[in-house]
Every structure is written in C-alpha cells, then in structure tokens.
Amino acid sequence: MQKWCPSVFSRVHDLFSEEKDVDPASATSAAPLATRMRPRSLEEFVGQEHILAPGKLLRRAIEADRLPSVIFSGPPGTGKTTLAHVIAEMTHSKFIRLSGVESNVTEMRRAIAAATNRLRTSGQKTILFIDEIHHFNKAQQDILLPDVESGNLRLIGATTYNPFFYVNSPLVSRSQVFQLEPLSVEQLEELIDRALADKERGLGNYTVKIDNEARRHLAKLSDGDARKCLNALEIGVLTTPPDPRGAIHFTLAVAEESIQQKAIVYDRAGDAIGSQKCCTPVKTFALSRGASSSLRVKTSAWPIRKRYHSLSPRSKRSNSSACLKRAFPSPTPRPTCAARKRVAMPTTRSTPPPTRSRWNEQNGSPKN
C-alpha cells in the first residue's frame, strides 16, 4: 500500500512580473531634492487646482477609483509623473513605468501581458505610466489600443507637447486629456519653505536663513518649474559655506548663481513658447542677394517668420529673391523702371540744338 504524503505547494511566481518600481517615498539621500520631495498624497500636491480641487472631475475619479486612461499634457516640472505615482498609491494599483525614449515594443508587450495576467489571477489593477509618450511612433501606440479599450490596464501618458497632434487619434479618443499649468510664484515659494522645513526628505537638518528677495528670485526664474526651483535651492544650500555659528545665509547673490537664467521652453521651430510678449529677439536680415549690403531690415523674429511662411510654396521654390523681397520689404524701396522714365534727366546743353530754318536765317540761304 502506497504511503500517503502531504503535498507541498509552493508560491506560484508571476512569470510576467516586472521589477518593482522605485517608490518616490523611499528615495535615498543621493536623489535630487525634487525627487525626494515628491508629494505622497493629493493633500501634499501643490498646484493644478483647476483639475484637483475638491469636487473636480479628476479628483472625484481618483477618490472613487473610477479613473479611466488619461493623458497629462503640460510643461516640465508641473507634476505629471508625481500625479501618476499618487494615483497608483491611492488606487492600490501596480505601477509600471515605461519611457517613450528608451522603451521598445518588446517591453511594451511584456508589460501588457503582465497586467493581463495580474488582473486575471489576483484582480489587482495595473497603471502603465508612459513618460514622453509623444516619442512613440504610430505602431507602438497602436499596440496599446486593445488593452486600453478592454480595461486590462490603465494608461497614464505624459507629454510636453500637444497630445491632439502628437498622439494617435484612436488613443486620444479612449483617454481623458488633462492640461497641467505652470506653477505660480506663490506656489513655488510654498515648495521652497516646505523643503527647508522637512527634516526627513528635505533640507531641514541644515540651518538655512533665506532672504525674501532670494526666495522670490528662485520662484520667478523657475518659470513655473518645480523641479528646477528645488534643485536650484539644493545646490545653493549645499555649496554655500556656513558662518561660524553654523547657519547658511541664502542671499540674493547665491540665488542668482544657483539658477543663473530663466527657463524658456522652445518648440521644434526654435520659437519660444509663451514668451513672445516678454522676449522678442531682434535679428537683421539682408533683403536679397542683389541688394546692397548696407540696406537691411531690422525687425522681430516672429513677424518675419509669420510673413515668410504665409507665402505659397510655389513662390518659394520658383524665385527665392522675389520671395525674400516680399517677405522683408525695403523701408526705402527703389523706384521702378517706369518711375525712372518719368523723371526728367538734366542736359548739359543750355540752348536747344539749332534747326535748319534757324541756320538759314543766321548764315543766309544756301546757294544752288
């Protein structure tokens, strides 16, 4: 008779499981200050009241765990990645992060298979966060369509460009698009004070005395970018030597050296986004190849670009000289040929040339 022995069941591992993503709350001291100070809940989140204020659509969807696939669009440093982490934490979902710059189709299929298997076996939902989703081509974005539509995963895409232009229309129609705005100066000052007071993740272990002018300078030149503001604050605090009492005096000069210049976002054409009113670079262009080198047009870059692109492509290809003349008209145009013909040209002769009758009167009639 065969002896009965108890069966030993081992824990079945998920063959499609990904490595655990780095939690912002568990960031080490080697991480930048902006990474360590990421909000862990909606109460700590600063800014974006137009979509996260109590009673707004996005906040109600997060609190009710009824969030569909979403696409966050906005400038850098406005909280797109942080908001995705907060959503995953509040909805108790598995967070998988991919990058539109370095991820390929194989990694996407592996993440989709892991999300489908996780939902079928344990019932846990998966949030697939794709940073810089506008870098994916059409074929890569089309891979997400069946699983996004069936609900096997929740897609959160982040982009700094217009999603209605850079993201496929079928994927946009299956997602909710939310626009994130740059942070105000007062909100950035609040983040600076919070980072200086936090002893666990921030700079609270340092005795920092920051001037109001320095705080305002950091907030203004960050141009709504919280990441740039906090990183500039950290480098200024860590590189400033303390006084004999151990206090670090963060002055306006230290703030100017820490951030140096204002962050301006440019598009692919090289134009500054949202800064045409405050910053209009002045350039000088020659009128045409045949014109005089001293004859120049001095104007702003944006109207010149607008006038140039308003011309038809046929005129640009047919005659580049005429195209430039129409795009950059001369302030003192030269007279045309018809105008030059109408101008009376002066003569050196004071009296008109003698006629035959006048010559006969003076010299007599010629003899036959």
Key phrases:
368 residues; alpha/beta; Rossmann fold; Helicase, Ruva Protein, domain 3; 5-stranded parallel sheet; two-stranded parallel ribbon; 9 strands; flat; disordered N terminus
Structure description:
The protein is of the alpha/beta class. It has three domains: 24-179, Rossmann fold (3-Layer(aba) Sandwich); 185-259, Helicase, Ruva Protein, domain 3, CATH 1.10.8.60; 282-327, no CATH class. 40% of the residues lie in helices and 11% in strands. It is built from 18 helices and nine strands. The strands form three sheets. The protein has a five-stranded parallel β-sheet with strand order 2-3-4-1-5, with helices on both faces. A two-stranded parallel ribbon has the order 6-7. Strands 8-9 form a two-stranded antiparallel ribbon. α10 crosses α11 (212-221), α11 (212-221) runs parallel beside α13 (252-259) and α12 crosses α13. The N and C termini lie far apart (166 Å). 27% of the residues are buried.
